[in-house]
Amino acid sequence: MSEKLCTLRTQGGGGLKETALWTNSAPTSVFANQTITLSDDLTKYDYLKVSYRVSTSISTESYVIIPVDTFKNYTGSQTNTIMYVLQSIGGYAYMLYQRSMAYTSPTQMTIGGANLINYGNNTITTGQNSRTIPISVIGCKFK
Questions:
Q1: pLDDT digits over 79-138, tens only?
Q2: What are the sequence ranges of the domains in the chain?
Q3: Three-class SS of residue 30?
């Protein structure tokens, strides 16, 4: 991941042009598994920047940067492949909330429902959709 970030910072010369492709109109609401529609063809971009907040009630934000060339090859149906996820930590470091993301079409992507992975007692709890709320998808293109 750090190699990708270094490439993003140095490779573009003129920097990156960012284009908003999708924005969550209700970022403080529960976000169930769904396919979102983007405003442009994601394959026109070099990277996607997917921003998300910790939960419906906690506004702390983070993001993940995904290379489009590899993301478009992940449709969610393969095994032994890269899975793109949004993650936030729960009350303890061993409690991780995650959502998968998969390519659906050039203008759509599927964002899975949130799960709690509790490494403390080796359990996975589904239906945690008030956590790790996606708030935007930005297309990034080298200028």
A1: 555 567 777 777 666 788 898 888 999 999 999 999 998 888 889 999 999 999 999 999
A2: 2-142
A3: coil
The CATH fold of domain 2-142: mini-chromosome maintenance (MCM) complex, domain 2 (2.60.320)
Q: Which of 136, 110, 141, 140 is nearest to 22 (CA)?
A: 136
**What is each CA distance from 18 to 7, 30, 44, 46, in whole angstroms?**
16, 27, 12, 10
Beta strands 61-67 and 84-89 are unpaired
Residues 48-84: tens digit of each pLDDT: 999 999 999 999 999 999 999 988 887 766 655 556 7
